[in-house]
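Hey, I'm writing a tutorial for new members on how sequence and structure tokens pair up, and I'd like a real worked example in the thread rather than a made-up one. If someone can provide the structure for the chain below, I'll link this post from the tutorial.
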Amino acid sequence: MAFVLGIVIGVWGIWAGICWCLQFFIILVTGRRNKQLHEQIQKWFEFYVKSYEYLYLLTDKRPL
């Protein structure tokens, strides 16, 4: 399960990184955050934290 979670987190992390870059430039130009990009980044970060809590045996709840 750790291998599959690592792949999912890695691929989704690439997408979150692209969203972060886009968000940075949107904030520079407009001075405001884009709500959809913020939600994408937040969902990835929440999944990342839940996955590593499970992998480091800090919780019994599965992230999926």
